[in-house]
Amino acid sequence: MSISPSRIAAFDVLLRVEEESAYAAELLHTDKITKLDARDRNLAMQIVMGTLRWQSKLDAELSPFLSGKNNVSKLDAEVRIALRMAAFQLRRLDRIPANAAVNDSVQLVKRAGKTSASPLVNAVLRKLTKAPPEAAAPLDSPQALAYSLSHPLWLVERWARDFGLEKTRRICEANQSQPATSLRMPADPDQAAATEAEIRGAGVELASGDLMATARRVISGDITSTAAFREKRVAIQDEASQLVAALVGRGDRILDCCAAPGGKTQAIALRNPHSHIVAAELHAQRARMMRDLVTAQNVEIIATHVADLKSDKPFDRVLADVPCSGTGTLSRNPEIKWRLKPEDLTDLHQRQVAILSAALDRAGNCARVVYSTCSLEPEEDEQVIEEILQLRKDIRVVPAREVLHELRQHGELAWQALDSITGGPFLRTLPGIHPCDGFFAAVLEKINA
Questions:
Q1: What is the pLDDT of residue 69?
Q2: Among this protein's residues, is 374 annotated catalytic?
Q3: Measuring CA to CA, which residue among 107, 143, 158, 112 is closest to residue 4?
Q4: Residue 289 phi/psi, 5° resolution?
Q5: Residue 163: is its pLDDT beyond 70?
Q6: What domains appear along the chain, each with residue ranges and CATH number?
Q7: Would you say residue 84 has pLDDT above 80?
Q8: Contact at 8 Å (CB) between 381 and 430?
Q9: Tens digits of per-residue pLDDT, 361-415?
Q10: Second label for 48, Cα 20 to 30 Å away, from 207, 272, 417, 443?
């Protein structure tokens, strides 16, 4: 019995995510997916992202039909993935024939060499198809949000503490939805206008950016099939990520400390075409990949840790977009929420303080240093700045609202309610509250260097 190509591709991606700690967003852009026809490609992407987003809820829906020794988490990975895939299709997708979802999952288990488990998969899924959907429950507590919207309870409790229950509900709902596709356009206004017209002519419908006046949002059509995308004249980049790059401002010598994959590096370079930009990336392989993605000719890519970077002159603009938990990007990277542990935040905090301190060491007097993460967690955000301010007396915090106001005056920022994207002196965006991923940024100025 043949299996749908979309389900084979989705199963193989999910198995790699499970066994290799790979990231679905990267695997979904490999040949295994892109070579599929449009219909199969879209279904494969839906299954992969939906299965990851709803993982704990799917397990809860499957559990009543499994005996204690066959708890979902104790099953072999291949069996667990096949069950979750089918449960997602049965419970979360319309117009999917139940028999197709069930039969293909049974065949996927056999294909994976787990034939002895196929009767179990068949029996569980047949029971699930006959069971009525669970009645909706009030989302009136962290426990209810975590269960109904499929998030780890410890994360939801933290967000409820930091942002309140209503904002936490909106964050969780946004994490379960397909995020908008935002484009970074050419920096030159005339080139941007011509490129936009070209893209529209190729059948892609665009709308103005909600956060960034210079951004565009894809409403319909396949942007990846356009010449502008293939030739790297436009790039897919979240609007908050574009905003962080804009906060860096303009300078003669600019350093991007943790540069891969290169989106912010390219955005900075396009805004500073006559500057010398150094992009430091610790991992040599990621640095090599950057050379394919960053087309600007004024960028020097160096495979090194920022603490080991050798430079004969200080920099007047520095971006420290540090490695972080990524909890502001869970709609794009849902596997993160199942891998992250509370203790990871302590380790990340220590690394982030070290990177920011090294970045400040390479900044000249009166230089602007932007610290940013795509995390919602205070250990990675405000607490890093607090520790740096205690350790060093050669910096001050520039209120983000002042920098945002400048961007709006220059026609780059479309968002009007500046107070809603700031928390104290810092930039703060939240999924579901703002039209972008969750980002934190602090703008620091070096003094008495």
A1: 65
A2: yes
A3: 107
A4: -65, -35
A5: yes
A6: 5-130 (1.10.940.10), 143-175 (no CATH), 181-236 (3.30.70.1170), 239-446 (3.40.50.150)
A7: yes
A8: no
A9: 999 999 999 999 999 999 999 999 999 999 999 999 999 999 999 999 999 999 9
A10: 207
Helix (H) or strand (E) holding 348: helix 344-361
Nearest to 449 by CA among 282, 313, 258, 253: 313
pLDDT for position 67: 81
Helix spans in 392-442 (H)? 400-409
Number of H helices, E strands in the chain: 20, 13
Sign of CA dihedral 251, 252, 258, 263: positive
Name the band, by pLDDT with cuts 50, 70 and 90, for residue 267.
very high
| Rounded Cα gap, residues 285 and 283, in angstroms | 6
Condensed to tens digits (0 to 9), the pLDDT of residues 317-345 reads: 999 999 999 999 999 999 999 999 999 99
Residue whose structure tokens are 């006046």: 213
d(CA 259, CA 81): 34
Torsion, Cα 179 180 183 184, to 10 degrees, reads -60
Q: Which residue do the tokens 């999952």 mark?
A: 105
| Single-letter code of the amino acid located at 17 | V
Local structure of 318: helix, strand or coil: strand
Q: Which of 325, 316, 320 is nearest to 377 (CA)?
A: 325
Q: Among residues 43, 45, 56, which one has the least CA distance to residue 13?
A: 45
Residue keyed to tokens 């209810």: 144
Name the catalytic one among 172, 257, 324, 374: 374
